[in-house]
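Example 9 (inverse folding). The structure is encoded as follows.
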């Protein structure tokens, strides 16, 4: 399979090249100069706006296909367009925490040889809800679709929804599971549709393994329909007008431009230095009434400690150090390091880049130190991640607190939120 503008490289080689260029230059894909934007800034902005309108339009259209309240009424869904190596270029409105999860999922498939087996081909759609493959927790289901133009892979599109039930030992979303083995359905890069049609075995499994199969299946159709809508508009309108080479080059410039804009915001609104904070999370499950369905392994009182040292550098980068976090255990509050970055990006979108266009560039200035064996970096995927979103939101309290101190110190009093 040939990748446009990839010099005949395999996807894994293209991904490794992108990561190497960023390490060596500090600029996404080594883009010191934004050539396409400099040559024709109006065309560049028109291209960017066209991509945004496609993903926002798809989200607003397909949500009415859903049967679940979270998707149809809560609008807990999002769409995005990605580079061939899996970096998000534009996101629709919606659940911004998925700004990196679908990217992790695409890169997970690339690193695990999906290009060769089962193969990345036209009309094939991949799905994941497993933390192994990059999701936040099992209730978040991601569907990604390759986009081919003139026989070459030029992009990915992805959609994410938040389902109500995945067949765990308890009904609902954030079930109180102590291990992976009672979390319900796990999907890690499965082919959910071929030739743009959902596979029969997918439907049969949903009908027999979740408590509300009609909602589960309709949400799958929402994601698939949205991906097809974005893919076809991308091929028939954007790529036909701008061409594949412009699409790839301008997409990468959008990401680098976004990274620079966030770095400028960090330098303007934050104060360089180290900020230490912490949060404690009690799990009072030892004798709590009303938890008759709680798994025996989880019936224990625990106090989860999440310390955080934030280092803001003078060059506009942020490091989050969770050294000292509580160890992994038989409970549902765990996260991956990538998940902690996802939640941090969500916070920065709300506080610093609220007037920017979110892309992969928003997360590039952020690094995380997550000690192995802790709740923020388990050494085994046998632990439970069903409420990792809860852990991330609680940990974000520490980030909000540190940001509030910096905003106050800079004089941005209206941004202080404690």
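The amino acid assigned to each position is listed next.
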């Amino acid at each position: 399979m040939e990748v446009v503008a990839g010099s005949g490289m395999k996807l894994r080689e293209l991904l490794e090249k992108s990561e190497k260029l960023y390490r060596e230059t500090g600029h996404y894909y080594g883009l010191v100069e934004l050539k396409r934007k400099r040559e024709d800034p109006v065309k560049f902005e028109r291209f960017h706006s066209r991509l945004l309108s496609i993903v926002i339009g798809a989200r607003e259209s397909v949500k009415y296909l859903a049967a679940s309240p979270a998707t149809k009424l809560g609008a807990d869904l999002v769409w995005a367009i990605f580079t061939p190596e899996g970096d998000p270029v534009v996101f629709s409105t919606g659940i911004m925490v998925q700004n990196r999860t679908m990217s992790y999922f695409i890169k997970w498939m690339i690193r695990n040889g999906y290009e060769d087996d089962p193969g990345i081909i036209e009309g094939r759609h991949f799905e994941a809800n497993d933390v192994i493959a990059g999701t936040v927790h099992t209730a978040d289901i991601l569907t990604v679709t390759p986009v081919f133009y003139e026989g070459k892979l030029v992009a990915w599109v992805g959609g994410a929804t938040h389902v109500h039930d995945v067949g765990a030992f308890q009904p609902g979303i954030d079930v109180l599971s102590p291990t992976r083995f009672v979390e319900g359905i796990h999907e890690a890069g499965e082919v959910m549709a071929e030739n743009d049609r959902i596979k029969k075995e997918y439907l049969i499994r949903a009908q027999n393994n979740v408590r509300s199969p009609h909602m589960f299946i309709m949400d799958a159709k929402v994601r698939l329909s949205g991906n097809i809508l974005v893919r076809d508009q991308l091929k028939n309108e954007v790529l036909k007008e701008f061409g594949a080479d412009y699409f790839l080059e301008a997409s990468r410039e959008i990401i680098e431009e976004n990274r620079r804009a966030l770095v400028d915001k960090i330098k303007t609104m934050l104060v360089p230095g180290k900020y230490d904070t912490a949060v404690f999370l009690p799990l009072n499950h030892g004798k709590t009434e009303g938890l008759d369905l709680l798994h025996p392994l989880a019936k224990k009182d625990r106090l989860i400690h999440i310390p955080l040292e934030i280092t803001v550098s003078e060059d506009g980068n942020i490091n989050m150090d969770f050294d000292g976090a509580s160890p992994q255990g038989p409970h549902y509050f765990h996260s991956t390091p990538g998940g902690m970055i996802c939640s941090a990006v969500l916070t920065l979108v709300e506080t610093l880049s609220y007037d920017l266009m979110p892309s992969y560039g928003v997360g590039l200035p952020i690094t995380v130190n997550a000690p192995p064996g802790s709740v923020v970096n388990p050494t085994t995927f046998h632990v439970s991640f069903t409420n990792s979103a809860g852990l991330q939101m609680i940990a974000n309290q520490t980030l909000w607190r540190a940001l509030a101190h910096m905003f106050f110190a800079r004089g941005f009093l209206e941004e202080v939120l404690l």
